[in-house]
Amino acid sequence: MTTATGTVTHPIQLTERINRIEPSATMAAVAEAEKLRQSGFDVVDMTAGEPHFMTPEHIKEAAIAAVRANFSRYTPVGGTTELKDAIIQRHATDFGSHYKREETCASVGGKHALFNVISVLVDHGDEVILPVPYWVSFKDMVRYVGGTCVLLKADETQGFRVTAQMIERLITPKTKLIILNSPSNPSGAVMSPADMTEVVRLAHERGIWVISDECYVYLNYTGHDFSVGSLNEYRDRFLVVGSLSKTYAMTGWRLGYTLGPTAVVGAVQKLQSQQTSNPTSIVQKAGTAALSGSQQCLWEMKEEYRRLRDHIVNGLRTIPGVACTMPQGAFYAFPNVSTFIGKSGIKCSADIAHGLLHKAHVATVAGEGFGTTEHVRLSYATAAENIDKALERMRGYFAAL
Ligand SMILES: Cc1ncc(COP(=O)(O)O)c(C=O)c1O
Q1: Ligand 1 atom at minimum distance from 244 CA
Q2: How far apart are CA 94 and CA 226, in angstroms?
Q3: Which of 12, 37, 83, 147 could in theory staple to 142 by disulfide, Cβ–Cβ 3.0 to 4.6 A?
Q4: Longest C-alpha distance within the chain, in Å?
């Protein structure tokens, strides 16, 4: 094309692949809240998908020591032996798993690990069973690699329960993978060990893969800590994806991992060798310190999250028209706000999130990004005073509808 000034321009033609996906809904919500704050409004931000704690001192010290010791070269693609051993040992101690180094790969965050596992397992035309509500990125990762998501509505009346029987009804000859995420972002639902075992047993029997996203596995308030990784008899059909982001308040450091059969983990490493190579060397040292050091910090953070959870859920439940399932893990409340649909021109939860932001200056994430039109997500990884402020403003907003 030639412009009026005579410059020749060419249309930008991106791949069909990139046009299949959307930007992350949570990141978009964070950006919109930030824009409002920049214009001078006092916005209570409940969007954050990350701990409000600082990274513990001993982890930071390990990184500083690594910098001083010039630990600045490439490492093996899937992480140092030291880090792999720390991942394996931590998981074995906490969940009774038995992984070897060749069954372990460290990546640049849990998101990276998930993207890589999905890339090596899902082909064009494959079906992936995905419980709703789902974490925003699963759907787009599956789409990006050419797969199709088969959505399964979790039973909200039973704490967003997903069972093997519900999954079994959706299995077809094209089903390649089931994605589990317990504790769940956004609902906070925790699958019981019995329900999880049944799903993995079913997948094993049918020759289907399971990815268990366990990024919030240490934020489980049921008293029954559980990882699929302990189910040794089915181990050739599932992968565990973990992350240090939420566990140790290390979101910006970017360190996650995959545990699973050698053939799949080897393929993940092959992909990673042509992509990012190793996670940052210094971060690997910090991660090793996090995993092999005292876990006291983790218990302290978990206790605080539990206190904040009770505070926000009890508060939400006093707002007329708002119903909120008690989340059993992670750090999100996922109230059902469907009673307001139809009032004051509201059609869906995106309208409610929009109204909450622009009229009450409370930033939440609309349910649409998680596959529902009836909920909004609030992160309670924040100070109790912010929660109080958000609750008061929400009460006013809903009362005025
Ligand atoms: C369910 C779930 N899985 C994976 C991730 C990725 O975490 P990270 O890439 O920081 O390890 C997140 C982050 O929000 C998440 O909520």
Answers
A1: 11
A2: 9
A3: 147
A4: 70
Tell me how far apart the alpha carbons of residues 354 and 342 are, in angstroms, rounded to a whole number: 15
Residue spans of the domains in the chain: they are 21-50+297-399, 58-292
- For 21-50+297-399, give the CATH class: alpha beta
Going by C-alpha positions, the residue among 187, 147, 124, 121 that lies closest to residue 326 is: 187
Q: How far is the CA of 241 from the centre of ligand 1 (A)?
A: 10
Mutate to test the pocket of ligand 1, among 108, 111, 218, 370 (most ligand atoms within 8 A of CB): 111
Task: Specify the pTM.
Answer: 0.96
Residue 381 — very low, low, confident or very high, per pLDDT cuts 50/70/90?
very high
Determine the topology of domain 58-292 in CATH. Answer: Aspartate Aminotransferase; domain 2 (3.40.640)
Q: pLDDT tens digit string along 274-312?
A: 999 999 999 999 999 999 999 999 999 999 999 999 999
- 110-129: b (≥16 Cβ within 10 Å) or e: bbbbbbbbbbbbbeeebbbb
Token pair 């995959």: residue = 258
Is the predicted pLDDT of residue 7 greater than 90, yes or no?
Answer: no
